[in-house]
Amino acid sequence: MVEVLNRRGFLKASTAFATGAAAGFSCIELASAAPIEIPTIDRLSLRVLIDSAHDQFLKPSTVRGVVHQPPGNGRGSDYRKVLHNQWGLSLFVESQRADESRTILLDFGYSPDALLNNIEILKVDPTKIDALIVSHGHHDHYGGLTGFLDSYRDKLAPDVKLYADGEDNFCHRVSPSGVQGQFTDFGQLDRRELAARRITTVLCETPTVVAGHAFTTGQIKRSSIERILPNTFVERGSKDGLGCGASHYSPPELQGKILPDEHVHEHATCFNIKDKGLVVISSCGHVGIVNSVRQAQEVSGVKKVHAIVGGFHLGPAPKEYLSQVVAEIGKLEPDVVIPMHCSGLNFALEAQAQMPAGILVPTTGSRLTFGA
C-alpha cells in the first residue's frame, strides 16, 4: 500500500506523469495523496551490501542497544572470492513486527558486479525482497540496479516496485572535471530500462509508507544551518524517453543550461521501532542530515531518534562547518550515529570527539540490528 501526505506540486507531477504515459512510459505511478499512518516495528536489521571499505579486524560490539556484527574476513565458502568495496552504498533491510517480516533493498551501489558478488558472499536472499528504494539519482546509488534486475527479476514478486522521491531522479547529471567550465558525464537513471525489466517506479515526493513497515520522508525541508556542498550539476529535459519530463519544470530550467544540483529529489528511509524511536537512513544527505532527521520527526510525530544511519556527505566539509553540523546532530539527541559512504573520516573523528559514547562505524558486510 502506498500512501502520501500533502503532495507538493501535485498538479505538476500529474502533468509529468501524463506526458510520460503519452510517450509510452506506463512504468511510472504517482502515490496516493491520502494521509499516512506511521507503522511501528519490533526489530530492524541492516546488512551493508556495499560501502567504501571492509575492515576484517572489527570486533562485534553493542552501542546503546544497537548490535554490530562485522563480517570477519569477508570471504565466502570460496577463498578466492572476497567482498567488493566501492564508492557507493547498498543496504539489505529486514524488519519484523510480531510474526510479520518485510525486506527492502535500499540503493544498489555503483556497479552490479560488486552488488552481485556481495549478495552471494553474504548469502542474503533477494527473493524475499518486498520493495526497492532508490534514495536519489546519483550513479553510485542506482548503478547496480539494472544488473541486479537482470540477475534476479524473475525471482522477485511480479508486482515489486521501485520507490523514488520525484521526477528529478531521471535527470541527466554531470560532475565538474577539475577544469573551469568543463564537466564529465555522471549518467542518468533510465526509466526505459526499468520498464523493460517490468519495474514500476512510484514517485512519492511526500511521505510514503513502503511495504507496510518503512516510511520515506518525501521532499526534505531545509531549515537548519546546513548547506549543499559542491557536487553534481543537472541537465533537465528529455529526448526519446531518456531524461526527466519537461512539463515538470519551469521554462528557465529548460533552456539547455547545466545548473547546480539542488537535490530536490532526495529522500530518507525511516523506521519507527517500538520503545526505541526513529531510525533515519540518509543514503547521502546532500540536503543535510539534520534537515533529514527533522523531516522524519515532523512526518512521523515521533521526536525520539534512536539512530541516524548512512551517508551524510560531510567528507569535503571544512573543519568549522563540520564541527557546527556535528553539534547540531548532538542536539537531536540520537542514541547512536552510524556514518557510512560519503560521511568521511573527518566526520567520524569529529563525531567521536563530540559524542564519544554514541558512534558506531560499520564496514562492508556488517550487520546492524536495532530493537534486538
TrEMBL record:
Residues 94-169 form the Metallo-beta-lactamase domain. SUPFAM superfamilies: Metallo-hydrolase/oxidoreductase. It holds the Pfam family Lactamase_B. It comes from the Bacteria. The gene is rbn_1. This is Ribonuclease BN. It comes from Methylobacterium thuringiense. Transmembrane segments: none annotated.
